[in-house]
Design a protein that fits this description.
- There is one protein chain.
- It is built from 20 helices and no strands.
- Helix 3 crosses helix 4.
- The longest helix is centred in the first third of the chain and has 30 residues.
- The C terminus is likely disordered.
Length: 419
Amino acid sequence: MNQELRIKTIIPAMWKLLKSAKTLTALMVLFLMAYLTAGFYTELRLLLDKIPKLLFEDFLIYQKAVELTFKGVNPYITTGTRSTFFYPPPSLLVVEVFSHIKPLLLRVATYSAVNILFLVLIVRGVAKKYGLSTRETWYWYVLCLGFAPFLELLTIGQINLITMFGIFLMFYWENKYPILSGFSLAVAIITKVTPILLFGYLFFNRKFKIMLATIAWILASIGLTALRYGPSPLVLYPRAFQDLSDTFVLNKNSQSLVAKLVTIANTNEASPISTFIIENYQHIQTGLMVYLFITICLSLLFAFLGKQRQEPALIITLLAMMLSPNVMWYHHYIFILLPLLIWMGWSRLDKRVVAWCLLGFFVIQVDRWFPPYGLLIHIFSHVSLLSILVWQIVELRKTKIPPLSSLFKKEEAEILPAS
């Protein structure tokens, strides 16, 4: 009897202790310590394998493209006869801003500082948009600044964070400053083509001013590119884009879904499934893109019909944007930061959502050098995407949508003259 009484007393006391703010903070600190350790280990293995060749490698490719353009040489052939620069011609304008900073060490420091500043502003901006204080979101800064793909981005001088910052500003300013929001999306598109998928999000949310502003800013950047570098890069880019679309890198370092599937198929014993994957990876990529496009369209449609909040459709679009390319590297996972931050902010830090996002962050930190070499990241992303879509369906079922026939009857009644 006394033992039963003790159990009934101890269990609620332990549960209360686990739910206390101090305990949750302590658990978060322990998690972040493991998280940072995993991230630094992942990045250190890359550095030890590639130093000194890897340091600022991608930015030097961008800079080489600018130099070749001024010489009248094809900027899309930056290494012998091999294309390593595939970005839209107006991206040269962004790169040139930094290329004038000398010496190289100062350029590296400045570019890295700008990327860190942009990431901090993204974290602070998402928290502010949802009325969350720094005290509530302090761990977001650790998650983002210690994110292994971000550490790789800084190491190689990648441009993707500038793209993500443009997407963030489009989202942050969309309800107040459509011209600036359009400018921000234009910057994202001229540095990375895939943000053009956000036009669907803007269309269904009736943000036509932002769409027009984006198109205007893109056209202006194309004109400025032609004036600065001549028409040659604009003429040559379609071929470079086609080459990129036809490229498949299928080694362990590549992070596209087809690369992960082919890697696993090659490491396992021969089977009908592995043979099918190896022989049909291009068709699998096509199927992936079709599935993601349909998912985006359904999400936007559900949000429109059910008059739902914009966040689910935006999160799905951003995740699909990250998952869709046929050429994908580890630093591309930087694009998962914004949708996960928005998800946590929109949910008002719902413990279930936060726990799921923390799991995703940790998976990305560790799932690179060991089997399945990144496939878990794709599984997490697709489960997240489909879970949000299911939530939209459930919410839509709660909404009373008038049948199409009733809409036609209403229209007919409006046309009939009064008797």
